[in-house]
Specification:
The chain has eight helices and seven strands; from the N terminus they run E-H-E-E-H-E-H-E-H-H-E-H-H-H-E. The protein has 250 residues and is an alpha/beta fold. It has one domain: NAD(P)-binding Rossmann-like Domain (Rossmann fold), CATH 3.40.50. The protein is globular and about 50 Å long. The structure holds NADP nicotinamide-adenine-dinucleotide phosphate. The site of NADP nicotinamide-adenine-dinucleotide phosphate has 28 residues, from helix 1 and helix 6. It is an enzyme of class 1 (oxidoreductase).
């Protein structure tokens, strides 16, 4: 029996420098992601809400809870990049922890509006250009707690779990147009967000992580960069953990 003819490789423009937009790229994990892309020679713009963009990177102001701000930020970014965004990294996120019985509507809504609806607003704007180009990469920064759950983080975990449904639905809707959508689920990463945790809580978390340490922002950045690269062209709707084994089995 003869083997079936191999499927021809689609033309893959992602080997070229890509036009990348990273939301919340002025600090923490987003900044590490933006720097990783820039180091590889890609054209990068970060979004920031206040102050100046980080040194060496171009920035546009964006409030992800506001559709008009998202639209304006993309338009400005596309002018800076000289072409539509080809890689969207939806990274902007917040926490407002509290026990379920005491959680206010405002704290629940603020977290879902930023983390989940913010990613939706950015993805909706990004796919306009991606559909025309018949190519695009969307990478949503979730968290291990999206699938693991976390006491005191019902709002945050719900918003991060929602990103999985978002990425998988984008994949089903637009996979045939050369667009991939994936979720990266970091465990505990050393940033301002985790530095705010009490020492006791940090010790408790460390004891649960098989790797015995927190991740560096650069370790998350490398996985995001891989998902945007030519070697990840056939990965879509996936949830990639970067958590030292913390979320295994989920
Ligand atoms: N750190 C961790 O251990 C960890 C673990 C798993 C997942 N994550 C996720 O990774 C992402 C980055 O986390 P991080 O630790 O780097 O956080 P961070 O240092 O607190 O940075 C958060 C970023 O999001 C931006 N942002 C927040 N709300 C926004 C809004 N409404 N509009 C636009 N930008 C907004 C912030 O902008 P400003 O500077 O203007 O506030 C900042 O750039 C988040 O989605 C987080 O949930 C983090």
């Amino acid at each position: 029996m003869t083997a079936p003819a191999p499927t021809p490789e689609p033309a893959d423009s992602s080997a070229q420098p890509q036009a990348v937009l990273v939301t919340g790229g002025n600090r923490g994990i987003g900044l590490a992601i933006a720097r990783a892309f820039a180091e590889d020679g890609h054209d990068v713009v970060v979004t920031h809400r206040s102050g100046e963009p980080p040194e060496g990177l171009r920035g546009v102001r964006c409030e992800v809870t506001d559709s008009e701000s998202v639209d304006a930020a993309f338009t400005e970014a596309e002018q800076l990049l000289g072409r539509p965004v080809q890689v969207l990294v939806a990274n902007a996120g917040i926490t407002r922890d509290g026990l379920l019985m005491r959680m206010s509507d405002e704290d629940f809504e603020a977290v879902v509006d930023t983390n989940l609806a913010g990613a939706f607003r950015c993805a909706r704007r990004a796919v306009k250009g991606m559909i025309r180009a018949r190519a695009g990469r969307i990478i949503l920064v979730s968290s291990v707690v999206g699938l693991l759950g976390s006491a005191g983080q019902t709002n945050y975990a719900a918003s991060k779990a929602g990103l999985v449904g978002l990425a998988r639905s984008i994949t089903r809707e637009l996979g045939g147009r050369g667009i991939t959508a994936n979720v990266v689920a970091p465990g505990f990463v050393r940033t301002e967000m985790t530095d705010e945790l009490s020492e006791d809580l940090q010790k408790t978390y460390l004891s649960q992580i098989p790797a015995g340490r927190f991740a560096t922002p650069e370790e998350v950045a490398r996985v995001v960069r891989f998902l945007a690269g030519p070697e990840a062209a056939y990965i879509s709707g996936a949830v990639i953990p970067v958590d030292g084994g913390l979320g295994m089995g989920h």
